[in-house]
Amino acid sequence: MKRTPAPRTIPILTLLIAVSLLAVPALADGGAPSTIPHYFYGQIYNVDGSNAPAGSIIVASVAGNPFGMTTVTTAGQYGVNRTDGDAVKFAVWDPAMSPDDTIVFYIDGVRATESAIYESGGFTNLTLTASAALPKKQPGESTTRPVNATAGQPVTVDGGGASVNLTTKGDCQGETLVFTLFTQPPDDQAIPPGNDNIGRFAEITSSITNDNIQKVIVTLHYTDSDVAGIDENSIRVYWWSTANSTWVQLPGGVDTAANIAWGETDHFSTFALLGVTPQPAPTQRGGGGGSSGGVFITPTSNVTPTITGEETPTPVNATETSAATPAVTGGPTTATGAQATQGEPGAEAPGDLPMTAIAIVAGIVVIAAAGFLLLRQR
């Protein structure tokens, strides 16, 4: 005789199936990122209105964090339009970003006059104009770092090939340090006689004003090949004095085992590692003797600085120190407003696919179990 399912069994099985069907899409969507990249493209100019050269590095910074970087491939243009196919787009995004974050742009370490507000999925035509003259030489690297410091407490900020140990007079929150590294003097500054260029230069700028800086210890890195033929113990950090148009040696020292040199100052500037080529020993001449040789430069004593403190993480919702400037299109003197439209979805965050698969499998198992129980009642 055919058995009829118990009256209470059918509603329970129906409920299980309904819950599983609703849970699958909900779980599958649970691993998706809450935001997606904001894409930018447009024209890019030097402060004098000339095209920024190919090779210029653009960094998009949010509260000092570098959340996007691209290199100019065609002078005067960056990024691509949505109609340009599979060309590389300039995407600005990080999981820590929040809607309405202010995005500040830097061109070869020089801040752009324009900024933008982050829109998840935005696709914005934004003209970028350097707020000061771009370096004459193109950098090899450029990045930004967040700074949060307590008055009188040193904080170390690492910019890759250069780092600083900074002590401020007052508290600083949400400030930005910009590190831009070169292999040649950025603006063709002449190397003084008697010194050797080892190919390590750094422009370091900050949103912190000089009157709030108590002390800065600048550390630059080098390689063994950089110092071939140079007296490594003579390497010191120099800064460029624009007032005197000369390199000025900073008090500091060198660690030849770690391949680093450091110098102490009270401001940010353009810095260089310079050394001295070993000079031949003086030769004695007949008839009273004498000596001959080149220029000898006595470096400052090799004093090891005391470096303490850790960099404080920047809050996720921190903003840069200035408000956003409306996006513009056209030439550097034309302000016609930004064109922001919804862009293509960004890539799913790592781990999305496994979460989706697990959710689907779980749903199938629940449905199969419900079907099995239903068959047993027949």
TrEMBL record:
ATP-binding in keyword set: no
Question: Is the keyword Membrane assigned to this protein?
Answer: yes
Q: Which UniProt keywords apply?
A: Membrane, Transmembrane, Transmembrane helix
- The name on file for this protein is PGF-pre-PGF domain-containing protein
For this protein, the parts annotated as crossing the membrane are 355-375
Organism annotation: Methanoculleus marisnigri
Q: Where is the composition biased (Polar residues)?
A: 140-153
Biased-composition ranges, Low complexity, are 304-315, 323-349
Q: Where is this region: Disordered?
A: 136-156, 301-349
